[in-house]
Every structure is written in structure tokens, then in C-alpha cells.
Write a structure and sequence with these properties.
4-stranded antiparallel sheet, Restrct_endonuc_typeI_TRD_sf, about 25% strand, alpha+beta, DNA-binding, nuclease, Restriction endonuclease subunit S, 3 domains, Adenine-n6-DNA-methyltransferase TaqI, Chain A, domain 2, elongated, about 425 residues, Helix Hairpins, 26 strands, 5-stranded mixed sheet, single chain, restriction system
Length: about 425
């Protein structure tokens, strides 16, 4: 790549290379009607009609990258009973599918380009735009990067409307101005960025393999199906009252803003609510948490809203609905339970002591919680198991950090290439 700072021109979207063009989106891409098939309309099993669907949620997950290979990705099928009085615009090679809705402001304008469609019958589903380059001014492999141009992305966010859910109208998208590099430059930019996509995809593959390995390892070690070498002592059925002590740390509500903590369901951990104004809190008494506490949300315990407090959470405040427990280290250690509480069986136990219908009607009994019996090894074996699982988690975290680095590097490179700040060398 080489820089060229002499051949630029001022346009309605800012400074761009002099041999690039600026066009309205609909002067390059033609819109085709899509179908409003939701998740409930689909099945993983092959159907008689064999019509497959790409949903807006698939676009936000982006499969592996911005380009979907229809040969390698499994797409759900439309149920036969959903097809009455339906007409279809089947996706063609190189089509662009854009999500018109996003729950995340940063996800506005996310899209995918399709390849290897072949003879497959695939439709664009709920909350999507299906567009096709009828002008032959873009090359396959480059089209999805149009929305990654930082200038275009900024304009997309300006035309998005909504509060908790953000949407883009067809009319506004049609008028969106986009820069169009020369075809040879598009090909070269796509080729350069595809090498980063390959590295990112490989890293994602490794991450998924490690996640699967770690799930299996945890399930085997935490149930005793597989024992750590050198340990043969029988596991004991132990009430949680012998593992934990209820340890509330009552404090008066602060007079100034403070850090409050919440718990995500499904074992997804603690989140922070910073700068909480005490005037907006009706309770006079709150409770402080400390590192290595076990904390649980009694309202959503049945959804596995439970976690071990980390150092960064220490000092946060919670209400009476978030009881905290400390470990009796002669019988149980937090490093072992950090993994143990995420198992399906532990969720099952929490469901048993959370009677009622659903939501706030299912409040866990704190008394019954300490009566729960869990089958666990002695502390020495707990430490050995925790060490194995911690090392496995560390390896996964290293690859997740590597993925973040690759994605950030690609993002920086895209900003340079897609704005023309750095020009590609067409002679390489």
C-alpha cells in the first residue's frame, strides 16, 4: 500500500480521492421486497419447499464475517405451512442484505453479502432490505464494506430513528450518499481486507472449539465423571450451610452517588450501575459486597442469576434482594464454586426453591438455599479441579483478546482504505 496525498477532491461527503465518485445509494443498488418470516416460521429440518431464510438476527451475528458463504453456513428452512399466499424474491450471488432494525445503536446498518448461492432458494426475512447492484459499479466482495466507511457509518446513525430500538427507513437509505472507488481499487481493498477476515474467522473457530472443550471439561470434572489424577476419595453430599455463611453487610444509603451492582441471568455475571443518585432509591439500607462473595438475585435465582464477586466489583452496593455469602474454606472454596454454580444441575436446584409462576412471582427462599445439598469433593480436589478449569478459561480468554486485537486492527485498516487516506498499490 502507498499513500497519495495530492490527488483528492472536496465532495458533499468530505475529501475523497479524485478518481472516486459519490452517488446516492439507490443509483447503485436496486431494492427488492423481502418476506416477514420470524424465527417461529423457521425450522432446522429440510422442508418440502426447501426455501431457506436469512433473518435480521443472523446479520447482527454476522455468521463468521461480513460475507456469508451459503455452502458452508447452515440456514434455517421456512415451514411449509407458512408459504400460502407468499411471493418470493430469491437471493442472487453478490446480493447485499441489510438489517433495517437494531437494538444496539452501534449495530445500525449492519449487512452481509452472499456468495455461493448456486441453485439454493434463499429469501431475506424479517427486518431486512435486499439490494442488488444493477449498475455494475461495485465488485463482489467489496459491497459490504461500503457501510464500514466511517463517513457513511456516521450518516447511517444520523438517519436512524428510535429510542430502545433503532430503525432505518427505505426512503432515507435510498438517499444515502456513498463513495465509490474505482473497480480495480475495490478489488484490491476487498482482497486486503479478506486476509484479515480469514485470520478473524480462524480465531473465531478456535474460540468455539475451546468453548465446547471447556463446557465438556467442566461437566466431567464438576460431576466427578472424570477425576483428577491422584484423587480417589469419594465425594460427599453436602448441604450448602456447611459451605456458605450468610454475610449481609448492612450500611445506610450513601448521601452521594454510588456504585450499584446487578446480576445477569443465565450465569452471565455481575454488571455495574455507576453514579446512582440516592434520591432515586427508595430504600434507606443497602448492603456492601466484597471480593469472593457468592451473590444471588432471589427474584431471578431460577434463571441462574448467581455469581462470585470479583475484585472490580468490591464495594458495590445491593438491595436486600441480593443476599451475599462467604465461603467456609474448610469445606468449600470460591475458585471451585465459580465454575460449579454455572452448571445446569445448580440451576435446577435453584428452580426447586423458587416456587411460583414466572418472573417476580418466583422468589427464592434464602432458608431453603442453605438447605440445598450438593455433591462435592474435599477442598484439596476442589483446588485441583479449579486450577484445571481456570487454565482452560485463561487459554480461551487469550484467544478472545487476540480476536479483539485482530478486529481492532482490521477496523483501523478499513478506516484508512475506505476513506482513501491510504491508497492501494494496484501494481502489487
Amino acid at each position: 500500500m502507498s499513500e497519495d496525498i495530492t490527488k483528492y477532491k472536496q465532495t458533499s461527503i468530505g475529501l475523497i480521492p479524485s478518481n472516486w465518485e459519490v452517488s446516492k445509494f439507490d443509483s447503485v443498488f436496486e431494492f427488492f421486497p423481502t418476506n416477514s418470516f420470524s424465527r417461529d416460521s423457521m425450522t432446522d429440518r429440510r422442508t418440502f419447499n426447501e426455501i431457506q431464510n436469512i433473518h435480521y438476527g443472523d446479520i447482527h451475528s454476522k455468521f463468521k464475517s461480513e460475507i456469508i458463504d451459503c455452502n458452508s453456513e447452515h440456514l434455517p428452512y421456512i415451514k411449509d405451512e407458512m408459504l400460502s399466499n407468499q411471493s418470493f424474491n430469491f437471493i442472487q450471488e453478490g446480493d447485499l442484505i441489510i438489517a433495517d432494525t437494531s437494538e444496539d445503536y452501534e449495530g445500525v446498518g449492519e449487512c452481509i453479502e452472499v456468495k455461493n448461492v448456486g441453485s439454493k432458494k434463499i429469501v431475506a426475512g424479517l427486518h431486512t432490505f435486499l439490494v442488488r447492484d444493477y449498475s455494475n459499479r461495485t465488485v463482489q466482495g467489496f459491497r459490504t464494506y461500503i457501510f464500514n466507511n466511517p463517513k457513511v457509518n456516521t450518516e447511517l446513525k444520523k438517519i436512524a430513528t428510535g429510542i430502545s430500538v433503532y430503525g432505518i427507513s427505505k426512503g432515507n437509505l435510498q438517499k444515502l450518499l456513498i463513495p465509490i472507488p474505482t473497480l480495480p481499487e475495490q478489488e484490491k481493498i476487498a482482497k486486503i481486507l479478506s486476509t484479515w477476515d480469514e485470520a478473524i474467522d480462524k480465531c473465531k473457530d478456535v474460540i468455539e472449539q475451546l468453548k465446547e472443550r471447556n463446557r465438556g471439561l467442566a461437566q466431567q470434572l464438576l460431576t466427578g465423571k472424570v477425576r483428577v489424577q491422584g484423587f480417589e476419595k469419594k465425594w460427599k453430599l453436602t448441604p450448602l450451610s456447611e459451605c456458605l455463611t450468610f454475610t449481609p453487610r448492612e450500611i445506610l444509603k450513601p448521601t452521594g452517588n454510588y456504585l450499584a451492582l446487578g446480576l445477569r441471568s443465565h450465569g452471565k455475571g455481575i454488571f455495574h450501575k455507576t453514579d446512582i443518585d440516592p434520591d432515586n432509591v427508595g430504600m434507606d439500607v443497602l448492603y456492601e459486597v466484597k471480593e469472593n462473595d457468592l451473590i444471588i438475585n432471589i427474584t431471578f435465582a431460577w434463571e441462574q442469576a448467581v455469581a462470585i464477586v470479583s475484585k472490580k466489583d468490591e464495594g458495590g452496593l445491593v438491595s436486600h434482594r441480593f443476599p451475599t455469602y462467604t465461603f467456609k474454606n474448610e469445606n468449600a472454596i470460591c475458585d471451585f464454586f465459580r465454575h460449579f454454580i454455572l452448571q445446569k444441575y445448580f440451576k435446577f436446584l435453584l428452580e426447586l426453591i423458587s416456587p411460583g409462576g414466572a418472573g417476580r412471582n418466583r422468589v427464592m427462599s434464602k432458608t431453603d438455599f442453605l438447605k440445598l445439598e450438593v455433591k462435592i469433593p474435599d477442598v484439596i480436589e476442589q483446588k485441583a479441579i479449579a486450577n484445571i478449569l481456570d487454565n482452560a478459561a485463561l487459554e480461551l480468554n487469550q484467544y478472545q483478546e487476540k480476536l479483539t486485537q485482530l478486529q481492532n486492527q482490521k477496523k483501523g485498516l478499513m478506516q484508512q482504505l475506505l476513506t482513501g487516506k491510504v491508497r492501494v498499490n494496484l501494481n502489487d
